Amino acid sequence: PIQPESRAFEADVAKLLHLMVHSVYSDKDVFLRELISNAADACEKLRFEAIETPSLLGDDPQPRITVLADPEARRLVVEDNGVGMSRDEMVEALGTIARSGTKAFVERIEAAQQKEGAQLIGQFGVGFYSAFMVADRVEVVSRRAGADEAASWVSDGKGTFSVAPASLEEAPARGTRVILHLLEDAAQYAERWTLESTIKAQSGHVPVPIWLVEKPGAEAVELTDGAALWTRPKSELTKEDYAEFYRGLGGAFDEPAMTVHYRAEGRHEYTALAFVPSSQPFDLFDPDRKGRMKLYVRRVFITDDAELLPRYLRFVRGLVDSADLPLNVSREMIQESPILGAIRKGLTNRVLGDIEKLAETDAATFETIWSAFGPVIKEGLYEDYERRAQLLALSRFRTTASGEGWRSLKEYVADLKENQTAIYYLAGGERERLRASPHLEGFRARGVEVLLLSDPVDSFWVTTLDGFEGKPFKSVTQGNADLALISKLDAAEEAAPETPPSVAEFIAFAKTALGDQVADVRASDRLTESPVCLVAPDHGPDRQLEKILASAGR
Ligand code: ADP
Ligand code: MG
């Protein structure tokens, strides 16, 4: 017989497992949702592959998820007749970090743990690995659709796993079986009542039917019918239905901050159901900037890679179900399809339009969205030329006048001081450091509001836009601050004296001493307390952008 092969998890997976196993988070239920969501994904992937290769379905065409409990043995099985995994796919998917964000994610969990105790861990959607919150041993047996061999994977979640070939008798005829050996304090997950209520509550809208076998030998009962929630009229659906569907997508634990559900008719017919989360997912700043919208054609899942929204809306989760595309739509077709182009445009307008509406009707929810995703939406300011003005109007800022709140540019411009012709900003670093910058002194003395741009993305858009409502953006670290024309709040300081001879002497001295390390030395209106500050020339990159470019080696 072939020996099972033992392997170590990638370092970050091992760390993640350790965190999972030692989690004292009370809401362990999420593991079940994650496993069911994977099973549903596998069924949908098979349905898609079968469009081209119908033989993959064999004599078992109906997708199905079965949950089998064995309370006496404290065992729980989640099985699907989906696409399955080959041995190599198992090693890749369950032993390494498929998602480049895992490292960042582990760091975030650790930070959260230090701050708030272990409570938070279970709230992060961690997919498959969440099984180790309730099990001390997890076995996976899988047979890829169309393959005549099977493989098994097993781990105790302590740093290693092993893979081995499995006999066809012990494997499902097609798809994946996940077997959990439950921890003593997780025994309830082998009880009918817990399973039934948890599955109905968490996975009630998963688009694949779910069956339950309450103990070995018992008959399977259907718990949910796998109907596509998005095809039902809005009037029939409650907020809770939507929230459950959203969480059933996997990886999310929060409430959606905003839900967009509509059917487009006319030239293109499609249904869209999209959610804006209320908190940042851990992979939001992954370099691949992958979107989270799935494409369906007449209820058949096609791909999650169709770029149904621009990258700066990649945090929006959900799906589009098109009635116009052919089922056998190819990758190239997806990229070039004018139908998808039109859907993309319609959906983008709709999502942005609804966020705009929210800003007017429900400021608190809007601010939740802006706090979480503003830094991403602002990428659109330089990427989406067509919607620049719209996005700029939507943007909110911390400013020297905002306190802990947010200000729009419309508000900023409405409060311009007499003779003020520009929108001033200070970019780079943390907000508190920005607030303490000496560059602000002269502005503060005149009551001139300054935008505090602390997101890395800010230095990019702010230098490429012409301005807002005819007012250009101007860095307070750049060139002459032309503040002389704006009166100081404290009139006693008003009579700005001519530069006294001693200052002129000092400037001459500083110029000689610093030589060609500086382009110029000048007396300035912008300081009231600090003796000196560095500024960038009027034209060219501002100080923050200079730093970013320098650190990028340009
Ligand atoms: P995600 O679902 O976000 O990709 P998971 O940790 O939940 O992350 O799952 C990791 C990967 O393992 C999946 O992307 C998939 O390739 C594979 N996988 C997990 N469960 C199954 C299953 N039941 N059938 C087929 N593949 C699976
Ligand atoms: Mg998953």
TrEMBL record:
One of its GO terms (cellular component) is cytoplasm. Residues 1-331 are annotated as: A. Residues 332-547 are annotated as: B. Residues 27-186 form the Histidine kinase/HSP90-like ATPase domain. It comes from the Bacteria. ATP binds at E34, N38, D80, M85, S100, G101, Q123, F124, G125, V126, G127, F128, T176, R331. It is found in: Cytoplasm. Keywords: ATP-binding, Chaperone, Cytoplasm, Nucleotide-binding, Stress response. Molecular chaperone. Has ATPase activity. This is Chaperone protein HtpG.
